[in-house]
Structures are given as structure tokens and as C-alpha cells.
From TrEMBL:
Its main location: membrane. It comes from Sylvia atricapilla (blackcap). Keywords: Calcium, Cell adhesion, Glycoprotein, Membrane, Repeat, Signal, Transmembrane, Transmembrane helix. It comes from the Eukaryota. This is PCDG2 protein. InterPro entries: Cadherin-like_dom, Cadherin-like_sf, Cadherin_C, Cadherin_CS, Cadherin_N, Protocadherin/Cadherin-CA. GO terms for biological process: homophilic cell adhesion via plasma membrane adhesion molecules. The keyword Calcium applies. It is a single-pass membrane protein. GO terms for molecular function: calcium ion binding. Residues 74-133, 134-242, 243-347, 355-452, 453-562 form the Cadherin domain. Residues 1-29 form the signal peptide. Pfam families: Cadherin, Cadherin_2, Cadherin_C_2.
Amino acid sequence: MCAARRRWGRRQRALLWAVLLAAWEAAWGQLRYSVPEEMPKGSFVGDVAKDLGLQLTALRDRSVRILDKGRTQYFAVHGKTGHLVTAERIDREQLCESVQQCVLRCELIVDGQMQVYGIEVEITDINDNAPSFREAETELKMSETTAPGSRFRLAEAHDPDSGRNSLQSYELSGDEHFSLAVQAGPGGDQRPELVLAKALDREEAAFHELVLRASDGGDPARTGTARIRVTVLDANDNAPVFSQAEYTVRVAEDVPVGSVLVTVTATDADEGLYGQVKYSLKKVSDMASDIFHLDSETGAITLLRSLDYEEGYSYELEVQGRDGGGLFDTAKVGITVTDINDNTPVILVRSALSEISEDAPSGTVVALLHVQDRDSGANGEVRCSLDEGAPFRLEKSFDDYYHVVTARELDREQVPEYNVTVRAADGGSPALQSSAVLALRVLDVNDNAPVFAEERYSARLAENNAAGALVLTVRATDADWGQNARVRYRLSEGRVRGAPLSSYVSVQAETGALYALRSLDYEQVRELQLWVRAEDGGAPALSSNVSVRLQIVDENDNAPQVLYPPAAPAAGSGGAWSGVELAPRWSEPGALAAGSLTRWLVLAVAAVSCLFVAFLLLLLALRLRRWRRRHLLPPDSGALRGVPVSHFVGIDGVRAFLQSYSHDVSLTADSRKSQLRFSAASCCDTLPARPLPDEPAPLLGEEDVA
């Protein structure tokens, strides 16, 4: 019971480590699963939706795809469960013939997120192949003089399974003259050898029938058998010997078909039939047998079809040289294929946008690219680039995946669409290149207002025009596209002579044509000043204004009108004027015959004119008199300084002194320098004197002087 608990604990710890490993690998964009080979189509591999945290709605919208790196699609994502399932029956031996650990790699692409995740699936082996011999029957020829204990190499069985399911043991049955010995090869493989246990006697038995059985370690075990017929010959005491135990050759993958790659040579010291050596391939894979050919007479190994480094870069052959007496020797031939730059880089567009808004921010992902080159080394190293000047750049995403992102903001009015060329070049000499074009259309944003063709408009229109007459056409253009570039026109509101402007003129919304809605009269309106607005169809809309000046041109549409004499009254109305003017007989030619009324009008005009002239002359005389008085008695000398106004008393407009003063008068020829001075000491008071003020008041007011 304790042992069972320990096993249960180990299973729990292993499960926990597996969960932690899967979570860590998912965080780094890498998932690992394992599945046995030969599982039916649709078998469960792993729960990628759970491991990557993907929503099942994204799977139902088919925005998640699986891409295998090989030519065959082996896996798929179930749209309802999010499970990774097998898309084909997988044969491990077919995919990984000589590889101990068989791993298939694929990528999971999430289109909505422009993300890619790597997935590795290890294909575990099942015991689905039995050991088999290349030849079901083998004939050995031995001399009857062969000493007991001699060993003879037997053909090996081949089991494509791996691990315990591969070849494990050999058994021999059929005759007491022989036994089986198994030797370990350099690579750990088992090499069966037939050991002569008892001397042969051709006269006793010319043939011996044996059965060699090969078994694997599966449960249950699988077996394969080969029949061995030993023919007893006369003595042949020399076996062939190869010049080298191992032949190694390196060839380029572009070597022509039919070329001799290497020639093996074995010699036999015997003469005659026992000295003739024939060559054969004893240990070779099915693929190698289709590529190489061994000439049994010369030992030359030639090429049957073209080599491809990407399909196989190393081959191992085992060549046997046998003489006519049945003795043989074996040699190993190793052929290494070197890579040449014969594969151009391939650019695969895994996900891409076809449209992008011109206001998309810098760094917006527009495409997910996968670049690969089947060559190896420097020949398989790929460098990617974009056209210079394009507003895009490449960013490494995962492994051989790249993001194409915007490097700056786009402007549809400058470039409405882009054909972005992505170039890939490998590191070979000379380098091979390939390219892919991404077509991207830039969607418009309403970022341009309409622009009028002219800064201002003016027109002249003759009066008495017909209603609806075309005055002029304004035109505005918008650099945007579609609805954002559709321009409509309208008038700005205003009033003319108390009436709305829209009752005089109108503008056609689509064409910008300006029409007069009524017949205009120069005697009423001589000029119209208005504003026209152009507005695009964006949301929100952008607009601009332009001024329009409309001048009304006068026409001779009014006849002269006689104000006097008035028109003749109607018959029988009893009007005062008879329509006849009388002129004196002595009137000279050119004299005005308008009658007495006309004469009185002329006299009235003359009288008014005379009165106006007389008024002007009087006004001028008064001005001159005032000017003269100012210069004869200026304000500074005309006042009686030191005598306050309170010392005067006025009676009937005449002012008299309240005190008696003595004064000195000094007169000069220049009246502007005359002086009148009063002496305060010589005055005789007639009324009580008052204290002198700080500032004496003028003797006479300015109005009196004037």
C-alpha cells in the first residue's frame, strides 16, 4: 500500500510539473505536447485555448489558424472546444526515419491580435512495425575446410520503431553445425554473426537450412524471420579485403545525376572464381536505395536522382564484397551532402489589412509576415527590408515572423493608397531574393475644409433683370474624398432695406450658382454685399466663407418729368391753369415767359440772397469791432486794480464809487501802454471801508468792455 501511495505521489508531482511547464512555455509563446503515432484523424493533442487564454468566440469567428512548417497539415484547432487535434494519421517512421526524437512544429496565428505562437508536438512511438530483413532468403557458401569457430556476418533486420519497440534480439534455429553470435556495432546496433560450431563435410551434407528470427521489445513483441541456406564448397582459403574499412565522401547537393560519387575496392588473393569479387549493398535505407546505385562489378556508387540537402543531408551505406567461393568482407560508406544556395526566401502573408484610416497612430500593425528559407547556415539566414521612403517599418515578432507597422501618421490627400513591397534576401553568395507586395488603401478622415477658387467674388448686374437670372457661380474644392469632399453652398443671413437677403438672391446648394430672385432697381438698391458659405459632408462638417459683391448697373429706364407747369387738367374739371402763357409784345428773344408767378419767384430769391449777404457783412463788422476793442484796452490794463467790486454800487445800470479815490493817469501815444493808477492813501471814505481782498477784482466786467 505504501508503494502504491508513492507511485500516486510521483504521478501527481509529474502532472504538476507538466502543468507548470506548459504555463511557462505559453507565457513565452511556445507550447509543447505529445501524441502517439497512428492516432485517428481528430484525436486530441492539447487544449490550446486554455493554455493560451483564448476565448472560444474568437475560435468560432475563424480568427485562429494553424500553420504547419512542413508540406502537410497534420494539426487543426477544433472550433467549438479550442482543442488541438490531429488532421491526418501520423506515421512516425515515415516522418522521422532516423531521428530518435520525432518533433513536429507548427504555428498558431491569432488574426485579431496579430500574434503568433509556436507549438511543438512530439510524436511518440508505438510498436506498429515488426523487424524485417531486406532479403527473405540468404545463401551462404562455405568451404568444407572452414575451421570451426569461423564467423560469418549475416544480414541485419530493420525495425523503424524506436526505443523498446525497436529491434532487441536475434535467434537462430535449424542445425547443430551453426550457432549465433551478436556483436554490438559502433552506433549501438546489433550485428548478427553466424558461427561455425562443427566442421563441415560436403560429402555428408552439401546444404544446411537455417532460420534467423529477429524480435523487438514491444508488448506483445513482433518478430521477423529470414531463411539462410548454407552451401558447402570446396576450399577457398582467402576472403576479399576492402582497401578501406570506411569510405567518407562529401558532395554538393547540385551534383549532376549519373555522377560517380565514390568507388569502393576489395581484393581477393585467390585466383579464378575464388578471386572474383562482386559488390552489393547490404545495409541501406529505402530512401538511399532510390538515390544511389552500386555497380556490382566495379564498386562505383553513382547518383540515380538529384540530391536535396533539405530532404537529407547524410546517408550511410554498407557495402559487401563477396568472392566466388562465398567469402566476403564489408565496408561502410558515409555520404554527406553539402548545402548550396538553391532556395529563394519565401514570404508568406499570414494576416494583413487591406484598409487603414489616415488618422491611425504610428505603430499600427498592418500585416503579419512569415519569412523562411529552406537552405541552412548563411544560405538560410534571411534579411527583410521595405522600400525607402515608405511610412512603414518591420518589427521582429516571433522566430521568423515579422510585423509590418506604420512608422508615422498617414495623409490620404498626399498618398491615397500604398503598394508596400517587402523584400527578403538570404546570406548566400550570390544572394537570392524574393518580394511580396501588400496593397493598402488609406481611408479618408475629414481633415480639410473647402477652399474657394478665389479670395473674393464680384459681379455687375444690369437693373430690371429677369427674376431667376444667373449672377455668378462660386466654386470651392475639398481635398478629402467621398462624402467628406462633397461641398454644399448656402447664404449667410442678412437684410437689405429691411427685407431678408434671401428674398433678393439665392445660391444653388450643389453647384454654387448665385441667382437673383427679383428684378433689381438701381434707384432703390445700388449694391449688394453678401457672404457665401461652403460646407463639406463630414461629421463634424468643416466650412469656409467668401465675400460676394454685386453691383447694380443703371439703365435709362426713367423718362424726364415736367414738374411745372403742371399737366393740363381733365376736361370739365375747372382747373385754374388754361395751359396758355401770355408774353408782352415788347419781349425780347430769349426772355423768360413764365408769367407773373415766375417773376415773383425770381424776386423772392433775389431778396433772400440780399438779406443773407447783409447778415454776413454785419457779422463781419461786429467781429472787427470786438477785435479792435481788445487791442485798445486789453484785459490786463483795462481793470482798475486794487478796487474791489464791492466798492461800487450800481443804479440803473450805472456803477458809482462808494469811496473817493485819487488817481494818476498816464497816457502815452501807444494806447496799449496807458495806465490808470489809484492811490489808496488819498481816498476819502464815504462808506465804511472793508478789508482788501487777497486778490483784487477787475474794475469792469468783460461784458462791459465788450
